[in-house]
Amino acid sequence: MSQPMQERTDFSLVLGGPLYQLFRRSHLSGDALDLLQRRIVVLSLFAWLPLAVLAAFDGRFLPGSVTVPFLLDVEVHVRYLVATPLLIAAELVVHQRMRTVLQQFFGRELVPDGERARFESAFESVVRLRNSVPAEILMIALVYGVGVFVVWRNYLALDTSTWYATASSTGTTLSPAGVWYGYVSLPVFQFLLLRWYFRVFIWARFLWQVSRIELKLVPTHPDRVGGLGFLASTAYAFLPLALAHGAMLAGMLASRIFHLGARLPDFKAEIVLMLFLVQFLVFGPLLVFAAQLARAKRTGLGEYGSLAARYVREFDAKWLRAQAPPGEPLVGSADLQSLADLGNSFEVVKGMRIAPVTRDAILQLAAATLLPVVPLLLTMMPWDELLKRLFGIVF
Predict the structure, then answer these.
(1) CB atoms within 10 A of CB 390
(2) Cβ count within 10 A of residue 321
(3) What whole-number distance in Å separates Cα of residue 200 and Cα of residue 205?
(4) Which of 96, 158, 296, 292 is nearest to 213 (CA)?
(5) d(C-alpha 200, C-alpha 346), whole Å
(6) Is 304 found in the same domain as 174?
(7) Cα separation of 265 and 252, whole Å?
(8) Total domain count for the chain?
(9) 187 and 331 belong to one structural domain
(10) Torsion of CA 228, 232, 234, 236, to 10 degrees
(11) Distance (Å, rounded) from C-alpha 40 to C-alpha 37?
(12) Shared-domain flag, residues 302 and 282
């Protein structure tokens, strides 16, 4: 007999799929995504270590060999030693923080009894998509067909002599390390990233299907989103993903600043675009409830407005028009407290938001995205000038 939906705690965007099964069979993961450190070490070194070894054998490891030697390629080190571990660690964080989403919907009695079948259907679609073999095969095809041969070669590869390629009049020639980089390391990273985008799509699709259900939203709920406030907290689960995107951006900018003579202000558009992308990935799916929340707010304002109007008329007639029973004292009367409570309820309805998104979550996500970029501010000021200002502040 299947477990009731309201008692299930196995909602997971990450606990499934061919790669997850491969991790389990190769003892890189347990049933609950344990062995995190082992996965991080194995995948990061699988992508990064052969590059270091091949670049060293080819004489492109140390400064002086090429314009951008392997040792000084900040972008590749950040990508595989910082961003890749963050993408892997984000799986466990998202799994642990979002596994009780189903319980919240039922514990708060948001799903009407007659709509439970539709809700369960939405959950089952999450499982099917998450475990889809064709989906991950398509992602691999996209990584090689678009990510490597189009995006990397035309937009991300440095236009100079590097440890992974040498440009000439006849074209670009990959070094042995460049071959591993272009056909193994880079696809591994892009696959992990694309797999995360697919998971965000699954999450957005699930929420969209749930938003088609007429939920039992309560306009006076203290969270000011009708009882959906728990969805705002799921944004914190994606902080490692935001950090990974910030690290990717910082690595790319650092390579262009250190090796191509660019300046940090030259990349304002890229920084703003990355901020928008991360905010959209995390908060975009939550916006599907906007129409239903706006409707609940309008209904609540109408209903509580009518209730308030009736109450204040009776209050006015009783206490201001001398209709109170003889001897009933005004001081300490429950009528005053009821009037205040009604006013507070109306203010809660009036302050309802049309999306389960909080300012704190937006700011924390933005801070996580920008944090890896902050050290690059040092490139805008010479070290001696920076030290002078630092000593001036301290002493």
Answers:
(1) 10
(2) 8
(3) 9
(4) 292
(5) 36
(6) no
(7) 14
(8) 2
(9) no
(10) -160
(11) 5
(12) no
pTM to 2 decimal places = 0.87
- Per-residue pLDDT of 120-139, as tens digits, reads 999 999 999 999 999 999 99
Token readout for 343 is: 């006013």
Separation of alpha carbons 273 and 267, rounded Å: 10
Q: Examine the domain organization and report whether 29 and 178 are in the same domain.
A: yes
**Using 50, 70 and 90 to split pLDDT, how confident is the model at 1?**
very low
pLDDT band at 261 (very low <50, low <70, confident <90, very high): confident
What CA–CA distances, in Å, run from 256 to 247, 259, 266, 285, 379?
A: 14, 5, 10, 34, 12
Do 335 and 369 lie in one domain? The reply is no
> Which pLDDT does position 323 carry in this prediction?
60
* 301 and 246 in a common domain: no
Q: Are residues 180 and 316 in the same domain?
A: no
Name the phi and psi angles at 170, rounded to 5. -95, -5
The encoded tokens of residue 333 equal: 């009367």
Please state the φ and ψ torsions of residue 172, each to the nearest 5 degrees.
Answer: -105, 130
Instruction: With CA atoms as reference, report the closest residue to 177 among 64, 65, 53, 79.
Output: 53
By residue range, what is the domain housing residue 325? 296-350
Gap between the Cα atoms of 272 and 238, Å rounded: 19
Q: Which amino acid is at 258?
A: F
Which helix or strand (DSSP H or E) is residue 167 part of? strand 165-168
User: 303-324, pLDDT tens digit by residue?
Assistant: 888 887 786 777 676 656 666 5
- Is the pLDDT at 293 greater than 60? The verdict is yes
Question: 372-376: long-range contacts (C-beta < 8 A, 24 or more apart)?
Answer: 372/78, 372/82, 372/243, 372/246, 372/247, 372/249, 372/250, 373/246, 373/249, 373/250, 373/253, 373/271, 375/250, 376/250, 376/253, 376/254, 376/257, 376/264
Same domain, 338 and 371: no
Q: How far apart are CA 255 and CA 251, in angstroms?
A: 6
